[in-house]
Design brief:
single chain; 142 residues; Cytochrome Bc1 Complex, Chain D, domain 2; 49% helix; 0% strand
Length: 142
């Protein structure tokens, strides 16, 4: 029992030290699992929540490792005079944004991986962007 507990503790320490080493290099590794393009909520939870948080307020578990804190996505309409900026959101999701925390214009940080997912069906990307944008619209504060 003690041997097993020691092994678990060593594995945990190794994982923590590896995560710390990755953060010190400015890299954040987020595992990407393929989701259905029809569920904006599922895509947000899997792809966006690590940085933006499940509540979309910009306080995800890896937010502290980023150069710039993620945007509070629940206030997009409020900051746009009460209108959801759907055209801007679609543009950012498709083409990226100059956001220092991402390290490049690719949005999200793992854009190349998601891009490969969409190569088999070009309509898949448009469906994903549309449904994710619609889901973000439902999160807006009143």
């Amino acid at each position: 029992m003690l041997k097993r507990l020691s092994l678990i503790a060593m594995a945990a320490m190794l994982a923590v030290s590896m995560a710390y080493a990755d953060q010190s290099k400015g890299k954040v590794i987020i595992p990407v699992n393929k989701t259905t393009p029809t569920s904006g909520k599922q895509m947000f939870t899997n792809y966006c929540a690590p940085c933006h948080g499940v509540d979309a307020k910009g306080r995800g578990p890896v937010a502290t490792a980023l150069k710039t804190q993620p945007v509070d996505l629940t206030e997009l309409s409020k900051l746009n005079h009460g209108k959801f900026p759907d055209t801007h959101i679609v543009t950012v999701l498709q083409f990226g944004a100059e956001i220092p925390s991402h390290g490049s214009v690719e949005m999200p940080v793992w854009g190349p991986i998601l891009g490969k997912m969409n190569q088999s069906n070009p309509q898949d990307k448009l469906l994903r962007v549309s449904n994710l944008s619609r889901y973000l619209e439902t999160l807006q504060v009143k």
